[in-house]
Write a structure and sequence with these properties.
alpha+beta; Aminopeptidase; nine-stranded mixed beta sheet; five-stranded antiparallel beta sheet; about 30% helix; binds coenzyme A
Length: about 280
Amino acid sequence: MIDVNLRVRSARTGDRQQISTLMFFEPFVYRHLDWCSPLEWLGVPDYWVIEKNGSVQAVLACPQEPPQIAWIRLFAYSGLMNMNKAWSLLWGHAREYFSQFGNVCVAAICSQGWFRVLLEQNGFITRQQIILLERRGRFPVQPHVAPEITIRPMMVEDLPGVVHTDKAAFSPLWQHTQSSFEMAFPQAVLATAALHNDRVIGYQISTQTPSGAHLARLAIVPEFQRQGIGRALIADLVDKLRKRAINRLTVNTQSDNLASLALYGQAGFVRTGEQYSVYEFEVHS
Ligand SMILES: CC(C)(COP(=O)(O)OP(=O)(O)OC[C@H]1O[C@@H](n2cnc3c(N)ncnc32)[C@H](O)[C@@H]1OP(=O)(O)O)[C@@H](O)C(=O)NCCC(=O)NCCS
């Protein structure tokens, strides 16, 4: 039966309180691991709610950043609603909206069983896994880089070079934008840049975790890859963490990223066994 009181509309900044109530009090909430709260995305057009008699019953946020890449940042629904109903109304709306942009890849990294089932039932496919590794080698990583390469703490002025590096190194699904880096940078426990003649050609950003540190981002521009710079950034990171008595270091990478798996293996990282599926759905116009 169609409930005529249910209305899908764009989320507004005034919905903040009701969305945060869904996020924090409902049992089934999917939240993307992110540099900011899903509430910070309010105001972007690719963010919708289901409203009933003035009350927000469900929410779906999948902002395009960069354009044509839309990670699902939030899906939550009230216990007063049926999950499939909430999803089909919001996802139907999202698909129609994205179809005006040509091809849009909607993606999610998912560990929760209920959300995996929902995505699979709706045609999302998984192409790769994100696997978690932990550095178990206690030996230092030996860096061997050319003398003209400098590694130093990242500065806010480096961010445009970091964004350029990221864009050159990662495929669009995994690229971060300037605004992502502006959020990530202040949250880093250690952020370092590799420079060649004052040009940023690589970087790493690590965050603090309850039990140590997590290497959240590492990239080298393609023309400088395979010259030991990734290894040197890790060596520098391990050394600085050791000086702060931080001994646990984790990293995530894609199961099919052979370069990073080889690098992390060489630097003493081993798989923990934890992994998450990456789901994708291509919306075509
Ligand atoms: C992964 C990445 C950071 C490696 O950086 P790099 O500076 O090229 O790596 P290094 O030159 O320090 O390599 C160190 C070791 O890693 C391994 N390795 C690095 N790239 C490799 C590749 N393409 N194929 C196989 N092994 C590779 C090798 O064992 C290498 O040692 P060797 O050259 O003595 O054989 C770089 O390829 C990159 O930026 N990739 C795109 C972004 C990315 O995937 N980031 C990691 C995501 S978590």
